[in-house]
UniProtKB/TrEMBL annotation:
The keyword Oxidoreductase applies. It comes from the Bacteria. Belongs to the short-chain dehydrogenases/reductases (SDR) family. Gene3D superfamilies: NAD(P)-binding Rossmann-like Domain. Residues 7-188 form the Ketoreductase domain. InterPro entries: KR_dom, NAD(P)-bd_dom_sf, Sc_DH/Rdtase_CS, SDR_fam. It comes from Sodalis ligni. SUPFAM superfamilies: NAD(P)-binding Rossmann-fold domains. This is 3-oxoacyl-[acyl-carrier protein] reductase. One of its GO terms (molecular function) is oxidoreductase activity. Keywords: Oxidoreductase. Pfam families: adh_short_C2.
Amino acid sequence: TKILLGKVALVTGGSRGIGAAIVRRLAADGAAVAFTFAASEERALALVAEVEALGGKVLAIKADSGDAEAVRRAVARTAGAFGVLDILVNNAGILIHGKVDEFALEDFDRMVDVNVRAVFVAVQAAIKHMTTGGRIITTGSVVADYTGFPGASIYSMTKGAVSAMTRGFARDLGPRGITVNAVQPGPTETDINDIESQRAMLRPMMALGRMGKDWEVASLVAYLAGPQAGFITGSLLTIDGGYTA
Ligand code: NDP
């Protein structure tokens, strides 16, 4: 049964990694799915072809999350193409490492723009199109609660901001019947951490002894997007293989 049939979703940062898995999963569940990308045009087009071959409705939109106007246009284009907007998934995110004594101000600003400001901009634009039953889901991170090692302070701060915004938006939008939640993945195998030495360090920190898969995070997002999750709002859902246990 296609539980999201008739629903329209927008996923930011859908060309690769967790975002691409979310696009695949929401489309498989029956939603029409638009997604944004900034740099990975080839990957985006390949994903469109893959989803269409399976009979899905999908649209790729080039929109850098650092550009507020581009984010607003992506929301408007999604609603224009598919008629409505039911589900917004704020997934685009970047990770720039560095300890406090060496971290560049430009990197601080870039990470805040993409990981935090773009979430606010997309939510503000999306709720103009959303009605009761609307769903907003953001990819936060367990680093909001547990950083674990040096060099991740500013990234962790951006995910802490996601967590706080999620609670606040849930209060703002609850009266309109729109739920707002964040998933907080632990270490998950994607391009963001595609360095074997880093993964070798992380694995023993996981209760399950392995990192997560993109589709495992996508399945939690799909659950939150679905009709059975209507009583969950303002929640930060950890999915981390026991990394913080
Ligand atoms: P990837 O680097 O594999 O993918 C990132 C995605 O975001 C790509 O599709 C990329 O598209 C897009 N993106 C990056 N910058 C921008 C931008 N400025 N505008 C629009 N799209 C952008 O990372 P993950 O899949 O691992 O990360 C996805 C989310 O999950 C992020 O928010 C990340 O912080 C979070 N996360 C990841 C964890 C992990 O261990 N992997 C753990 C916890 C959270 P393009 O290439 O086209 O720019």
